[in-house]
């Protein structure tokens, strides 16, 4: 189902002006056991999913559901609900946190030299003789 939905979005055969201007990826589809309901997670290329994009997709959901039912030989057209896939933005946020956290906790070159001298018991001062 994910591949069929992605194909419809890529071909641009949905006749929606907004969807013609954005690149939408279908990242995941979760179907109910009876195949009557589908939660469709989408992402926009290069930015967070805009509310306008979700509105357009959900407005066209009945048309897409009918096409999918015919293409997949389903008894009922699935009721599609499009939602933003936040996993990409969450992953980027975690990556930023890790990068800034590692940079904040990394020892400076001068600190490493001082710690080595203290560990060996040598202070390097004139009164050590």
Topology:
Blueprint: H1 2-11, H2 17-20, E1 24-31, E2 37-44, H3 51-59, H4 61-72, E3 79-84, H5 87-105, H6 109-120
Parallel strand pairs: 2-3
Antiparallel strand pairs: 1-2
State the helicity in percent bands: 40-55%
CATH topology value of the domain at 2-90: GMP Synthetase, Chain A, domain 3
CATH architecture of the domain at 2-90: 2-Layer Sandwich
Average pLDDT metric: 84
- Principal-axis shape equals elongated
Determine the number of helices (DSSP H or I, runs of at least 4 residues).
6
Largest beta sheet: what is the strand line-up?
1-2-3
Uncertain runs? none
Query: How many DSSP-defined strands?
Result: 3
CA-atom Rg in angstroms: 27 Å
Helix-strand makeup class: alpha+beta
The CATH superfamily title of the domain at 2-90: K homology (KH) domain
Q: Quickly name the level 1 CATH class of the domain at 2-90.
A: Alpha Beta
Strand content: 15-25%
Order of helices and strands: HHEEHHEHH
In short:
The protein is an alpha+beta fold and 129 residues long.
Your description of this structure?
The chain is an alpha+beta fold and 129 residues long. The chain has a domain at 2-90: GMP Synthetase, Chain A, domain 3. 51% of the residues lie in helices and 17% in strands. Strands 1-2-3 form a 3-stranded mixed β-sheet. The protein is elongated and about 65 Å long.
């Amino acid at each position: 189902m994910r591949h069929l939905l992605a194909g419809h979005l890529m071909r641009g055969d949905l006749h929606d002006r907004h969807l013609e201007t954005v690149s939408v990826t279908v990242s995941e589809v979760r179907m109910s056991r009876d195949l009557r309901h589908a939660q469709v997670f989408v992402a926009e290329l290069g930015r967070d999913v805009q509310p306008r994009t979700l509105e357009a997709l959900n407005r066209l959901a009945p048309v897409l559901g009918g096409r999918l039912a015919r293409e997949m030989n389903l008894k009922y057209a699935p009721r599609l609900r499009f939602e933003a896939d936040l996993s990409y933005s969450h992953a980027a946020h975690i990556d930023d946190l890790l990068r800034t956290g590692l940079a904040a906790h990394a020892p400076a070159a001068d600190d490493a030299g001082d710690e080595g001298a203290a560990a060996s018991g040598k202070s390097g001062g004139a009164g050590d003789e």
